[in-house]
Amino acid sequence: MAAIAAGLEATQTPLVAFTDDDAIPRTDWIERLIEPFSDPTVGAVGGRDVVMAEDNLGNFNYLTSDEQEIVGLVTYWGRLIGNHHIGVGPARYVDCLKGVNCMYRLAAVAIPNNLRGSGAQVHNEVAIGLRAKSNGWKLVYDPKILVDHYEGPRFDDDARSGPSKTATSNAAYNLTFSIGSCGFAQGLRRELYALLIGDRAMPGLGRAMMALLAGSERSFFLERLGPTLRGNAQAGLDLARGRRVSFY
What we know:
7-stranded mixed β-sheet; two-stranded antiparallel sheet
């Protein structure tokens, strides 16, 4: 986050595009990103990252998955619906964009400086997007704006193959803290949802209980339950103390 903030401080362009070092934008990427900014109320535009999977022979192919039309939304109860990598349909307004494939107006973007993590402050895009939206900007997701994403390894606690308990706790904290920073009511709803139900990668009591009864993926959910509850509880305490996401 500090590196991205430094880059933003150095730039003098009105629009700034973001991608990752393990992604390759399509040839029309910049052209498609810029087009929606003809509307002066649009603060950010993003698209789909097509996840590429490596087979046993070292060849890369598109990772097939069920495509979805609901993308980049935070529900009334504070559940985050991502799906940026499998989005289909027309361009639409969203609550957050994925950092691997987006462009912001310089006037609309700011980088959070108090999220948790060492290297990958997971869910920083949620804080960035919700801040822009709360300031009156519109965020547009168009699945025709494409990058090919060869998901590379992460060299910190948040390894893709299996994040540590600290990384799981940090991710839960960041998500609840980012959503809760939008207001007291939203924060309370998110805290209740996170503790009682939870997200798949960060389960609450309800998901863990269902996994325990069903016997499917029991170890996955139970292993993540403790760190997730800890992260969400810490975020709730910080929100209750009046802390909010702050930005560079």
